[in-house]
Amino acid sequence: MHWFATAGQQLLPAVADARVRPLIDSTVTFDTADKAAERLRSHQAHGKITLAVP
Predict the structure, then answer these.
(1) pLDDT (tens digit, 9 = 90+) per residue, 23-37?
(2) What DSSP assignment string belongs to the chain?
């Protein structure tokens, strides 16, 4: 488990200064969250699906 802690120490700063960015498939609203969940279940999403909060 030590390798995980070491990787996290290196990864978090890289994310913070935008050297590493998550792959965002799409951003959805609460109205379309059910379709987004289906997209995840069917393995059609290529990256993360984020939820927009008004």
Answers:
(1) 999 999 999 999 999
(2) -HHHHHHHHHHHHHHHTTSS-PPEEEEE-GGGHHHHHHHHHTT---SEEEE---
